[in-house]
Structure formats: C-alpha cells, structure tokens
Amino acid sequence: MSDLTYAKIDQTVLDTLRPATQVYWFTVALLAVGMLGGLACWIYQIFIGIGVGGQNNPVAWGTYLINFVFWVGIAHSGTLISAILHLFHAGWRNPIARAAETMTVFAVCTAGLFPFVHLGRAWMVYYMLPYPNQRTLWPNFQSPLMFDVVAISTYLTVSSLFWYTGLLPDLATVRDRSTGLRKKIFTILSMGWTGKMEQWRHYTRGYLFFAALATPLVISVHSVVSWDFALGVVPGWHTTIFAPYFVAGAIHSGLAMVLTLMIPLRKIFSYEKIITLEVLENVAKTIILTGLIVGFAYGTEFFIAWYSQNSIEIAIFKWRALGHYKVGFWIMVVCNTIIPLLLFIKKIRRSIIWLFVISIFINIGMWFERFVIIITSVARDFIPHAWGLYWPTVVEMGIMVGSFSLFFFLFVLFVKHMPSVSMTENKEMLAEGESHGA
Amino acid sequence: MGPECQVMGLFTDEERAASAVQALEETPWQLKQVHSPIPSHKLSEALNLKKSKVGYFTLVGGIIGFFSGFALAMFTAAKWSLIVGGKPVIALVPFVIVGFEFTILFAVFGNVIGLLIQGGLPDFKGMEIYDPRCSGDHFGVLAACPEIEKGQLINYFKEKGGVTRVFES
Amino acid sequence: MKRRNFLKLASIGSLSFAASACTSEPDKTIFSLVQAPADMVTGSPTWYASTCRECPAGCGIIAKNREGRVIKVEGNPLHPINRGKLCIRGQAVVQGIYNPDRIKSPLLKKNDQWQPISFSQARSLIQEKAIQAAQSGSDKARMITELVGDSQLALFIHCLEKLNSKGPIAFEPLAYETLKTANREAFGIDGLPSYLMDKADCLVSLGADFLETWLSPVEYAWRFKAMHAVRTEAQGVFFHISPYQSLTGANADRWIACHPGREAAIVMGLIKATLEKGRGIGLPQSLIQSLRDASERYTTQATARMADIDPKDFESLKIRVLKAKTPLILGTGAGTASGAFQADLAANMLNLILDSDLTLFDFDRRHRVEGSARRSEVIEFFNSLSTDGVRLLLINNVNPAYALPPGSGIRKSLDSDRMFVVSFSNFMDDTTALADLIFPVCLPLESWDEYSGKNGMVSTLQPAMGRFTQAPHVGDLMLDVAFKDDRSVPDYKTWVMTQLHSKGVMREKNEWLKALQAGGVFPDVSPSVTRPRPVTGATSLFEPVDDTTGLFEPVDDTIERDPAKPVFIAVPSIRFFDGRGANRPWLGEIPDPLTKVAWQTPVLGHPESLKAAGAGHGEVVTIQTQQGQVEAIAYETRQVKPGVWVMGMGQGHIHFGRYAANVGINPLTLLPPKIDNMTGGPVFSTAVVALSATGDSKPLAHTDGSRIQHDRKIALSIPLDQMSANHDEKSAHEPSLTMEGFPFTLPLPEGYDPKRDFYPPHDHENYRWAMAVDLDKCIGCAACTAACYAENNIGIVEKDRIVEGREMTWLRVERYHDPENPEKITFFPMMCQHCDNAPCEPVCPVYAPHHSKEGLNNQIYNRCIGTRFCSQNCPYKVRRFNWFEWEWPDPMNLQLNPDVTVRSKGVMEKCSFCIQRIKVAHGVAKNEKREIKDGEVVPACVQTCPTGALTFGNLMDVNSRVRMLTQDVRAYQAMGYLNTKPAVIYLKKVVQKT
Known about the structure:
The complex is a heterotrimer.
Chain A: H1 6-15, H2 22-48, H3 63-87, H4 94-118, H5 144-177, H6 180-189, H7 197-230, H8 242-268, H9 277-308, H10 311-322, H11 326-338, H12 346-349, H13 352-379, H14 394-417, H15 423-437
Helix pairs in contact in A: 1-15, 2-14, 3-4, 3-7, 3-8, 3-13, 4-5, 4-14, 5-6, 5-7, 7-8, 8-9, 8-13, 9-10, 9-11, 10-11, 11-13
Chain B: E1 4-11, H1 14-24, E2 30-35, H2 41-46, H3 54-80, H4 92-119, E3 139-146, H5 150-159, E4 163-168
Antiparallel strand pairs in B: 1-3, 1-4, 2-3
Helix pairs in contact in B: 3-4
Chain C: H1 3-13, H2 15-18, E1 46-51, E2 60-66, E3 69-75, H3 88-91, H4 94-97, E4 107-110, E5 113-116, H5 119-135, E6 141-145, H6 150-162, E7 169-170, H7 177-187, E8 194-195, E9 202-206, H8 217-227, E10 237-241, H9 247-250, E11 254-256, H10 263-276, H11 285-294, H12 300-307, H13 311-323, E12 327-332, H14 340-354, E13 361-362, H15 375-387, E14 392-396, H16 400-403, H17 410-414, E15 420-423, E16 437-438, E17 449-450, E18 458-461, H18 474-482, H19 492-503, H20 509-518, E19 520-521, H21 538-542, E20 567-571, H22 585-589, E21 603-605, H23 607-613, E22 619-624, E23 629-636, E24 644-648, E25 685-687, E26 690-697, E27 717-719, H24 729-732, E28 769-774, H25 783-792, H26 798-803, E29 812-817, E30 825-830, E31 849-851, E32 857-859, H27 869-873, E33 880-881, E34 908-909, H28 915-927, H29 940-944, E35 950-954, H30 961-966, E36 971-973, E37 984-987, E38 989-991
Parallel strand pairs in C: 6-7, 6-14, 9-10, 9-12, 10-11, 14-15, 15-16, 20-24, 21-23, 27-38, 28-37
Antiparallel strand pairs in C: 1-2, 2-3, 4-5, 4-16, 8-13, 17-18, 18-19, 20-25, 21-24, 22-23, 22-26, 28-35, 29-30, 31-32, 33-34, 36-37
Helix pairs in contact in C: 5-18, 6-18, 7-14, 10-11, 10-12, 10-13, 10-14
C-alpha cells in the first residue's frame, strides 16, 4: 500500500459520508419494511400465544433460540478481530476492524431481541432483572439463562464501549472535515478530541486494556451460550465439548459474515486500496482454521457418543445423521466443513466472487448447525413415548426475516453516516509500515 | 517579558515533527502541546512520555466487579432460600460465571472512567488552540514564545520543514 | 382498546411498559348465590351420593359440590359394585351437565326449523297429543327408553297404561343377546349373572372386554386384578381369545388371535379335553354323552385349523385350564361375530363341566342390562310404529338413529307425519334431530331416582346441585302427561319412595335418608343360592339335526384366509361406550389406550392387510361393505388378525354438539341390519366388499412418539419365577453409574452418596410426598387421566393441536409394546416424578419450578415467564406449556375446580400431586393438632384407579404404604440412572410363561 497516504485514506473514508443516493434510501426503506413485518408477526404472537409458532412438546425451543444463538455467533468475530488480533499486532485487522465491531454491536442487539420473542409471557420479561422490589422477588443466578442475561448484556456494553473508544479519533477527523449540523454532532461525539500526545498516551494504554478484557469476554460469552445446552441433561447437549465447539463455531460464522459484509462494502465504497485482497485472504485463511476446528468438533461428538457406549447418546447422533432432520445435518456438515476447504486453493482464496459465495454458504451452514443442535436432541430425548417433530411456521419465518432486516438496516445506516473504516488505525499502520521499511 | 504568543508548527512528516520537538528543548521556547493524527511512537519517544495510569482504574473496577457479582448472586439466592435441582441454596459453582462477567464489566467501566479522567475528556476548551489538519495528515507542535521572538520561532519551524500557524492570545 | 391489550402492545417495545403489564388471564365471571343452600359452606365441598348413569353398570358415585355446583364425581366407597372407583366415562359425567351444547328449553319443529317454546307450552302440547293418542285406540302412545331403574320403569308402565298403551321397551345397543340366550338355553335363565372373577385362578375370555364395556367394567377391573394379583411364584392366569386385541386382551397373559366367529371351536376343543380327563362329575350322563359326540372332531389340530390359531396356543390353554382349580370361562364380547352364540353356549357347558355347581356364577345378583330389549324386539318395535298407527312416540334418552345400522329403517319410521315424536334428550343427537318436539328433562345428577346395577340391591340418585335448567324430571313430566288431578302420587320422588317402600327395601323415612347418604341399600354379600342346573333341552342343541344344519355343524375346517375377503368388526369403545359419551370433550381428548389416537376413528389393520390394500400406516383407505362405505385412516398394528379390520364405536355422529358432530367415523353405518335368528341379537361384524387406499394420507392425532421403549429401562417387567427373594433384580448388577448398574436411590437423604452426588443431601419437613405405581395392576384404562383433567382444570386442545403435539395432559398412560412380540404390552402411567434432583428446577431463571419443603416439585404459574427450559430439560417430558388460551365454552367453566388456578397462555404447568388436596389435609391435621395420617391425602388419579395401581403417601413415614412398597423386590425408578431421584416409585410388571 505504498501509494497510500494519510490524505488518501482520509479522503476514501470521508467520501463514503457523501449524501446518499436514491438506491441507498430505497434499500433502507425495504429493510425497514422487513423489520416492521417481523414486528407485526411478533405482536400477533403476543396476542394469540406462542402456539402460532411451531414449537410443541417435546420440542419447546424453535427458531427463536436458533436465531438467538446464530446472531450471538455472528457477534463474536467482531470483537475477536479487533481485540485478539490487536493484541497479536496482526496488521491486517485494521482495515476491517471497524466494520467488524459494528457488526458485533448490531448482531448482539438483534440477538438480544430473541429471548424476548421466545418468552411465553414477554410482558413478564422484567422478572429476569435483579431489580429491588418490595416483594423481594429475585432471579435465579443458578440458571444458564441468567448466565446469558449477565453475559450478553456485559458483552453488549463492553463491545459498544470498545467500538466507541475506537471511533473517537476518527470522529474528530470527521468533525474537522465537516461543517454545519454534522460538525456540531461530531464535535459532541468526539468529546473534543484533539489528538494531543497526552490524550494518546492514555488512549493507547486504555485501548490495550480494552482488548485484554474483551478477549476473555468473547470466549466466555459464547461458552455461556453453549451452557444453555450443555448444562441440560438432554442427550446431545450434555457434553463438555460444547463451550470450545460453540466458540469456534461462533468465530467461524462471524468471519463468514465479515466477508459477506466487507466484500460489497469494499466494492461500493471502493475500499480496494485499504481493504486489500491480502486482508480478505487472511480472513479466508482464518476461516479454514475455524472450519477445521468445527469439523473436528462434529467428529468428536460422534466419537464421544460411540465411546461412551451410552445407547441413548448413540441413538440421538445416529438419528441426527440419518433421521427426519438429516438434510439439515448434512447441510451443516457440507457448508461448514467441506466447502471452506476450497479456500486451501489460492485461486479461490483470492477470488472475490468465490469468497463471497463461500461466506454465504457458511452463514447458511452455521444457521443449520444451531437448528440441528437445538431441535434434534429434544425431539428424540429420553422418553420414546414423548418423541415428536418440529417444523417452523410462517410467523417464525416472518420474525426471522425481520431480524435479518433489522441487522442490515442498522448496518446500512451506519456505513453511510460513520467512518466504516478506521482512518487512524490505517494511518498508524502506514506509519509503522514506513518505519519498518526505513 | 512582553505578551506571549503561541506558534504551531505543522509537519506532514512524523520524523521532522519528532526532531522539531527534541530540538525545541535547546531553545528558550516552551513546548506547549503536540498534536498527532496517530498514536506516534516517535513523538512519544521524543517527549519521553511516561506510562499511563489507566490500568489502576481498570484493576480497581475489576476487583469491585468480581465481589459484587458473587455478592449479588448469593444475596438473591439467600433471599429465596429455595432448593433447586437438589443444589444447596448458595451453590458457589454456578456463581463463578456471574462473578466473572461482572469482573469484566466493571473492569471495563473502570477503564473507561480512567481514560476520561486521565485523558481529560471531554475537553472542548482544548479545541481553541488547535489546527484541524492535526486530525488529518499533519503533526502539530505548539510552542510558546514572547511576542518579540515570534519571527524566530516561525523560522525555527520553517527550518525544521513545517508550516506554521500563529495563535495570538 | 382494552387496557390489557394496550399494555401488551406497550410491552412489545419497552421493558418499562412491560413492567406494568398484567397477565393475559381471561376475565372470569364470579357467581354469588343470593340464597345459599343450608349445607353449603363457602370454600368447603359438600358430597352427595348418587349413581352413575353413563352406562348400565350402575356404579355408585359421590358428587363434589362447591358453592352450589358439581365440580367432580368420584366413586362411592360404600358401593358394592365399584367400591369407590370410577372409569374414564364416569369421571366425564360432569361434562354432560355443563355441556355447552345442552338444550336448555323445549324446541318445537316447525317446517324443519327448531323454535324454542316454554316448558309449560311443551308440556301441554304433549298432554294434548297424549290424549289424542289415548282416545284413538290402544297402543297409540309408545315409548322407547334407555335402561332405567325399576321405579322409573314401573312409572312409565303406569303412565302408559293410563294412555291405554303397553309399557316401554328399554333399548341398549349392547344388550348381550347371545349371552342371555346361551344362559337361557343352558340354564333356563334368560339373564346375565355376575361372575365372581376374583375367586378364579384361570380365566378364559372369548372376547368379553370386561375392562372396557362388558357388563360392568369397573367391577370386573378390580375383580380381575384381585384374581390376577401377584403372589410369590403364583398368579392367576388369563387367556383372551378374540380376532383383535382389545384393552382386555392387552392385559391377558396370552392373547390368542382366532378367526372371527370361531371361538366356539376352541371351547369345543377344551370340552373334548376336559371330558377326556374325566371332568364333568355331577352332570347328567345324557349331556356328557352328547357333548362328547359333539366335541369328538375337535382334536387339537382340528381346533387350531378351524379357529386358525397356533396349535401351541391351544395346547398351553388346555394345560392351564385343566390344571386350574377354579377356572372360569367368560363369554363373547359385545363386538360379536356370527358364531358367538355357539361360543357362549359351549362356554356355559364347559363351565358346567369344570364346576357343575357354577360356584363362580352369581345368579342372585344379575346385571340390570339383562332387562334391555333384544335387538329383534327393538327393530320389531320400530316397524310396528307405522303398522300400529302409533300417534305419539316418546324417546327417552336413547339414540337408535345413530346406534342402529342404517338398513334398519329407523329414520324412515321416525319421520311419519301421523306420529308425533317427542325426545326427552338434553342434546341434539341424531335421533332427537328427527323428533317433532325436544323436551329436555333433568339429568341424573339433578334428579331424585333409584337405579340398581344389579338386583338384590338399591342404588339411589339425588340432586347433587341446584337445577341447571327448568327441565323437570322425566318421571314428573310423565305423571303430568298421563294424569290430571287423578294422580296417585304428588311427584316422582314420592313415587320412588313408595316403590321402595312397597318393595320392603325401606320402611321408615329415616331409612330413605340413610340410603341417600350411603348412596343406596347394600345388603351384605351372601353367597348365591340360585344354583341353576343344565336345561335338559340343552343336549339337543349339540346334536346335529343332519350333516349340515345343527348348531355346531357349520363350523367347518376350512377358513379362507384370503386377504381380498377381509372382515370388518365394530367394537365398543372404552371412551365412548356405544357413542353416548362422544360429546364429553375429555373422552375425545384422552387418547384411546391402545392406539393412542385422540378425536379420530382410525381403522385398525394388520400389516399384511394394509399391504394387501396397498395402504401404509396413516394413509386413508376406503372401506366398502354391503351397507355403504367410509374413508378412514389406516392404523397399522399387529393387534388384529390378518384380514380383519377393526374400528371403535362411538364417533361419527351427524349431530350431538360441537365435540361430537362430524368428529370421527361411525362404523355402525357399515353394518347390516341383520339379526341373528337364534339370539335375536345384532352382528357387529360384516364382510368387506372392497377396501382400497385412496392415496392421500391424513395426520393421525396420536400422542405416542414411539411404540417401543428402545431398551431404556423405562417400563420394566419381571418374570414370575424370579419373584422370590433370591432373584433380587437390584443385586443382579454391581452398583455402578451405568444404565444397568445404577442403584435404587430414594428421594431421601439416604439416597445420596458422595460417589454419585456432587452436592450434599437435603432434608424435608415432616413429609416427603411420593407415589408408587404398580405396573402389574395398571390396565391402561386412563381413568386416572380423566380424573386428573377433572380435578386440575386441564385445557382441552382438540384434534389439530394434538397433531401439533400440544396435548395438555398432566398424566399420560404410556403404552409400550415388546419389540419381539408386540402383543405383549406394558402400560406405564407417567406424571411428574417430583424428583429430588429435578433437572427442571435449576434451569429456570425465575424460580418458577422449585423444590418444596415437603419434596414436591412446585410450579408457580404467575411467576413463570415461559422460557420452556424446564420442559426441555425434563427427561420425563411431563411438563405442559400453555401454547394458547384454552377455552371452556360457557357453562363448561362452571365445572372448573375453584381450588386450582386456571393457567393463562404462556405459562408452564404439570402434575402437582394434587397439592390442593395436600393443603386441605394439612388444614384438617392442624385443626386436630396431629400429623397427616397415611392415606389421608388421595390425589385424584389415585382415588379413581379401578385396580388400585397407584399409592400415594409420605416417604418419611417408615410405616406408610408407599414406603413399604419401596422395599418391594419389584420397586425401581423410571430412568433412575439419570440420578434425578424420582419420587414416583414403579413396581415392575410381572410376566408369567403361558
């Protein structure tokens, strides 16, 4: 990126904040419609009852929790990329960190909605909050669901703060390049950041701690999510491999979503110089790794089932692969572990189209992973007389579409109104690059 | 001495800015402020800045978080004193998770507070003597000198290869 | 917008709004009685003894009245027939009273439109018609009635006499003509004795489904289990011989699937065998001789060939019958094919041979149902209506238009312009729909009456609640119709009293009161004195008239097993009886014990039969007979003989209210109006003309996920010969943490062990409630489930929801087939196990489920927010979620138990061990300053179980019955290897080699 200069970086990024086209607003409107559709479905469900979904006895959890886990998973690689790679001084993180963090924040928000949607009595959700009340009714902190409440809300707070802290210098840059209302807004947002070395001194240090804290948090959050299942007695859930398995899966899906978002972004905002092919290639390489880990986890599950010689455990895994939901299972296996292997081929790894298509496949595969885990185990757990099947309904689909609309709605709004690529960090990288060169 | 005036030397080159900062020490003029678009190592070396103390805030936050997490979990359990799943009313193992998450959360709060206090943010006064280019591609070295020596200081920065901007007070 | 809705809307977006939102609980009407009855104490129930009239058996019931309305009925413990127990249909009686489709005022048909008229108008209209009829000659006013008590029958005769007509005929679709005739021909008694089944040690049924509908199911259920009770190394043995395996057959030690109508051959084979062994002492030689001649041909091989059974089956049957000290052969069931009479007659003879004194027959206490008319008489009656030019027809609570095959021409004879048809029914059933006037009369639980299920006793009825409508009692109405001021008695109640008085059953008034309190007058059971001798004429029946005709001649050796010529059998249903129960939603909702299908009427066929029809399980087939054709869902099962198609009676009504109209299929429409000349009885089987798959398939509303238990140590059984202590199952395996070796862990501190348990044990406060379930006693009748629905306000979800898997039952009777031989079935009642280490509890974020001080697994409905994690984590899947707001259409809501919350949508619920009853017991004990006694708390399911399979009590009391049962060799816990430490202790089913 030798031909890059600070000015060029600023220019490229600031160009993205130019007044939007009609196409852009049309997209926003479209997504808003999808969002409202989902909302309508939810209101309908609240009035009629959860029964409008497909859940039943024994399968009392459906797409709502599938989507919850899915979005939490997406939420993961954002902080992973900016925090862990920051600690490792992996330079290729800088061009995509901002967008990834943004993705994290919005994905957590989306994920956070689903527990509400899922509840039989959404209007009683505040029972889960430890607020002092004169009846001294408190939540049960032994419940994995309370772990979730604590972990997810912590994660949302931390990643938002992390994200904002990262934005600060860029906000100042925008402030200094803009006029009128925008200037006013950014003046406030940037909190009078002037890039004094005194500010930088604390900033860099604080940012480092941020990264240091966010890293274990990322790991813990998805472990906690996995314990929603692993702490149950249900065959196929009650296993110690779940935490690492889920974390790997989360990163896998997160990276895929980064590609899905970055590739169009790069094209539309002509970020080619900043988000270079190398950057994408590095993401792809990481995907190979996570894909292999996930694949290994799938294998391990079957091995444990066989090795335990627990007939119930064996039965559930046989059924996963060969039973009513086998299609879902094989979609999961192929999309998450087989297809990513293509990235071993350099040509594919460096082909934008391929990367994009593969990332889409992984997203689909990871959704089905959650489907397989959540549905199959309870559909055929201990008591054969109570076995049953589950299929999602239109209402559930509507809410799911709504959630995707919400996520993209927020993201699209962001990229047009905030620096979607960190100028400072790229300048920094440029500086270091030169100094190394020198 | 007569009235003071402040001159900012703006450099597009990190090296030059750094050397300007260093050389300034041999001059009678007083280095006021250094603005940088990036957390520049060279500059911080030149200024030989000390390590930030933000970490202590973070640490304190973390400790508070750890205990308050456990405390909350144990308090609520004790309030009910109900047996669930055959566990004792206060079953510490599950509370570890609550404790952990609270540790992180409060540590981050501590970190942010530390950042704001130490970094003196928000700081809108600081923008009065400031050049917008410093958030772009310029490194700003602000120095103060008596009104009469203004010309010399400007020349000094020119020699160092920067453009200058004068802030009359 | 309603406030509630607003808050719901508000809650969608923001927590802060949600914080003030209330539940979506529906508003409920609160009834306040202006004038409370003298004996009514608010909050505490009053019990009224009465008699169940849901079937002719006549069980005693006690009706629980709370705040002036009956909310539940239970068996009357003093009653000799049912001894405090009740069947699934008895439990559902309240749904008749509160049925939303109940007709509240008389309806008059004006040009095919029903218009309501007042009771007085209707009464005078009938009076007018009656007088016209009476004047226009004799027998112009006729009546067909359900089976009623002596007093009521006498009244009908009395009144009809005044209208110079002959008495009514009592119509019961299941009238046991073949049994009656066989008894007449064999013993000269045209009746139905009761059987002292409990005294037998070997029981052979030729299809008598005495656990479902046959004569007196509740009585025979407990008698059967008394006979079949487990004694160390010994147990009565029970053979069931029929073309399909009914619930009774499922409870047999051996089910012998014989060709329809060929039961006789097997009995003849047994006769031959017994005679060869020289049995039959005390019988006239002539009879012995003719029997010997008649049974000559029935060698084991021949018998097996004729009945199309495995010779081995016959051999073992023979051995057991010969070995038995007190064997008893029961006759054919109600779902009889031709040839049933031969079977019943032969059975009588065999009984004589085995015990010439017929010690196990009680001819003094005969079943009242014998008083119902033969089918031939019923048909004759309807034909005579037009020929005799009858002007007024009174139909008292019978439904012939539904219960008689269409070919019988009932509809035609009912819809004649010259005849005014009055129906006293409370429901618009198929017959009532054809009437000219509907005059609802009050139901048994609202009436003074008397009905004795057997002679030799009196069982009384009294109003258990205030009148629900202005409807008079049919007796009072008849008095009004027949008499003006010249009536002998003021009202029907007085009539009943005078009748009983004249019978000498009761002399003074206080005896009447005593009788009402006790539910009747029950003389001590003295051994039967009537000892019928074989009718001399009986001999002739067995002698061939010539080579072809004689009664037993047509039983030829050849049986065409041509699947193309299948047989269709309609069988009475344990849930709907003959169909009269179809409009009680509980009966539709609770699945059939064997198919586990609710609300639908599948047709059962053997895999071979389905293959021949080209249909798969759950696919729709068209069954065509001479009479007509129906489309039904094929249900594949090995519990029917190949070539036999079986369908349960009771559904497929054209009318009969929202819960019955056009629900399921009526198999009777496929049957011919044929009457057996010998017995005058109907046939419930016919040849199938054509049977083919339509190609499309409908979802079966079944509640079972799997028919077998996949070796998961759920419903266990133990061979009889291992019952002795030296074969202790528990010591068979080294204690380990595996499925096989996991030890028996009581939900008490002693059940804990650091080797297995991470956390220390916890104590309970005086009580640790637990239940013992004896799988050997459980017959799978689902009476417990019905009682649970009644007691706990459980929602009715109906067919579509059951297809979706949303049934709400707290107590389900799981049915598991043995994978090797599917006719071996174990019934397994599954309710909340109230585990000591309950997996459902810790996963709830708001403590809605938690462990009570007395070991109960409580569920706090108004704390529940509906995460459904508890249900996910329950290994027994006994938790039920309110997917919707369930409806109790007015006035069904009046049946709701005021002691139990009605759950709103979005909350989880489950079995509570009837905690409301535990609370009551606590109150009583506290007032008397003592601890709760063993047996003082009786949950609804335990209370009603006809065989006493369930025992409830306190585990911490070492002398309690439930604690004793935990010491039993057979005691185990369902999936105890999960270390949930369930408080429901199961006792293994005992299986014996036959």
